[in-house]
Amino acid sequence: MPLSRAKIAAAFSQALMDSQLVSLRELATKIALGMFKPFTSVINDARLNDNDTRLFQAVLHNQEVVHLFASRFEAAREAYGPALERVLASGDPLLERTVRNNVAVIHLCLGDYENAMRDARRSLDLCRSYGDLAREGDNLAVCGTILMFVGQLEQAREHLNEALAIHDRTGSRWSRADGLVY
């Protein structure tokens, strides 16, 4: 049986993420500039036709990346609404932690710091309860950035330092680089 277009999009997306982040960024940039319409079409079809919550989230993540790179923050929030609803309905806390952190970043970009912190804290709590140290570091960096934007600089510094320490322990160079940028 042939793979659905959604599964092909998710597999393609995962291959890009597994290779080099630069490749994903290049693809997202091309999509944002309208230079890679076939992939955007596959993403849209997958959103409408597939009932697999994890696959749906993976496809939406790529759409969110495209919107963020194009500074279309409202569109990114709209794209993630259905993903969060599905994840909450599924009761999958491990998937919820990822979706919540992504939604927190979108709220941060929109200047909605209260909702950004709500989603970031929920994601952080889930990471800690399941022992997901790598994502805990990512969430701490997002929380630190939000705190920085609302002027709580000492707390921001503590969160960011804790995030960097975790990234040192886990050896996550990409996450450490993101933390240093914040």
Summarize the structure in words.
With 182 residues, the protein is an all-alpha fold. The protein is built from ten helices and no strands. Helix 2 packs across helix 4, helix 4 (53-69) runs antiparallel to helix 5 and helix 4 runs parallel beside helix 6 (93-110). Mean pLDDT is 74; it is low at 18-24.
Give me the secondary-structure topology.
Elements: H1 5-19, H2 21-32, H3 37-49, H4 53-69, H5 73-90, H6 93-110, H7 113-130, H8 133-149, H9 153-170, H10 173-181
Helix pairs in contact: 1-3, 1-4, 2-4, 3-4, 4-5, 4-6, 5-6, 6-7, 6-8, 7-8, 8-9, 9-10
Work out the helix count.
10
Q: How widely separated are the two ends? A: 46 Å
Give the SSE order as H and E letters. HHHHHHHHHH
Q: Rg, please?
A: 16 Å
Strand content: under 5%
Sketch the major β-sheet: none
Mean pLDDT: 74
Helix content: over 70%
Instruction: State the secondary-structure class.
Output: mainly alpha
- Unreliable spans are 18-24
Dominant shape: globular
The strand count comes to 0
Write a compact overview of the structure shown.
The chain has ten helices and no strands.
Provide keyphrases for this structure:
85% helix; mainly alpha; single chain; 182 residues
